[in-house]
Structure formats: C-alpha cells, structure tokens
Amino acid sequence: MLQLHEQALLCYYDAFLTFVEPKTYKDALTQSCWIKAMQEELNELKRLEVWELVPQPDKVMVITLKWIYKVKLDELGGILKNKARLVSCGYRQEEGIEFEESFAPVARLEAIRIFLAYAVHMNMVVYQMDVKTAFLNDADHAGCQDTRRSTSGSLQFLGDRLISWLSKRQKSDAISSTEAEYIALSGCCAQILWMRSQLTD
C-alpha cells in the first residue's frame, strides 16, 4: 500500500513540475517531457538542415547556444505542449567582425506616421535627415553589450523654442539596432502625445 502511495505522489510531483519552465539545461534533464521537447527541436534542426557540424578551425570562436524552455497552455490553462528552442547568444558578436553599423536608407511609414500627422496638423515643415549627419541624433542603439539596451536622447521644440529634452537608458532589450530605434521612437511619441494633451487642455 505504501508503494502505491509513493507512486501517486511521484506522479503528482511530475505532473506539477511540467508547469514549471526549467531555468537551466541541467534542470531540464531531470524531466522526460523536457528531454522529449529538446529532442524534437534537435530533430527539426537536422531535418531542415539548419547547420552542419564540422571540426572547429584554429582561431575561430564557436557559436554559443542556449536552450529556452516554454510551457504552452490551452485556453483552459491545461498544458498544450512543452517547447524547447535552441538559440544562439547574439551578445557575443563583436562589431566589425560579425556585423557592421548601418543605416536604413528609408524609414517605414508606420514608424513616423504620428510625427507626419502632427507636423501636417501644425503646418510645420518636415526635413529629411541625410545619412552623413545621422550621428547628430545622439543615440547609442543597443549599445550596452550585456543588456542590449540603448541610451538615447531627444529634443522637443514648440516653434523655435526648446521645451523638453531627454537622455536616458531604455527599459526594454533590443535584438537589433533597428529595434532599438523603434523603442526610442515610441518613447519619444509617448512624450509628444503627453505634451500635446497638456497644451490642448
């Protein structure tokens, strides 16, 4: 009878832990459901021929990989699937070796729509910034190597007068410099909308 009770507790323990997403690879290896999820991910990478394993050449850094674990729930809160994803650690990139700083020749209309609408509403003239002077925007997009967070600055003018300035580290992480620019732009939009609401009241 005691053995049946112990088995029931073990089943309950196992069922409960599947709701918990493991933080490390070592934690994931303690449960069969996560081992199965990792094996499915590896099989899919092999099937799609994502990479080919080769001997490491001299003086070449190996790409660092990390497992990310996620419990997918259905609409009732039950476990739908345990997912394991193998991702590369982008923060290990070195500027000039794996990537170069670049500027997009055009901005997406969705990103600047609010600025254009406000400029038209206020009969303002809109100027396009040349890529040669792009350094004047005072931003360090995704510049922190550890957190991938940006330090950005913005100035708001009402007519010819400076009414607000800001220089801060962003609260959100960014995967790319383009994403960091959108994060900074959304913060600037929020401040402009707040100032507009204060001026119209």
Keywords summarizing the entry:
201 residues, alpha+beta, 3-stranded antiparallel β-sheet, two-stranded antiparallel sheet, 5 strands, elongated, Retrovirus-related Pol polyprotein from transposon TNT 1-94, RVT_2
Structure description:
The chain is α+β, with helices and mostly antiparallel strands. The chain folds into two domains: 2-88, no CATH class; 109-200. It is 36% helix and 19% strand. It is built from five helices and five strands; from the N terminus they run H-H-H-E-E-H-E-E-E-H. Strands 3-4-5 form a three-stranded antiparallel beta sheet, with helices on one face. It has a two-stranded antiparallel sheet with strand order 1-2. A hairpin with a 2-residue loop joins strand 4 (151-158) and strand 5 (161-169). Helix 4 runs parallel beside helix 5 (177-200). The protein starts with a helix and ends with a helix. InterPro entries: RVT_2. Residues 49-138 form the Reverse transcriptase Ty1/copia-type domain. This is Retrovirus-related Pol polyprotein from transposon TNT 1-94.
Share of β-strand residues: 15-25%
Report the biggest beta sheet as strand number plus sense, adding barrel if it closes.
3 strands, antiparallel
Give me the number of helical elements.
5
SSE string, helix = H, strand = E?
A: HHHEEHEEEH
Using the CA coordinates, give the radius of gyration: 25 Å
Strand order of the largest sheet: 3-4-5
Helix % is 25-40%
Structural class: alpha+beta
Distance between the termini: 75 Å
* Regions with little confidence, pLDDT below 50 for 5+ residues: 97-107, 128-139
* Number of DSSP-assigned strands: 5
Tell me the count of domains.
Answer: 2
Whole-number average pLDDT? 67
| Morphology | elongated
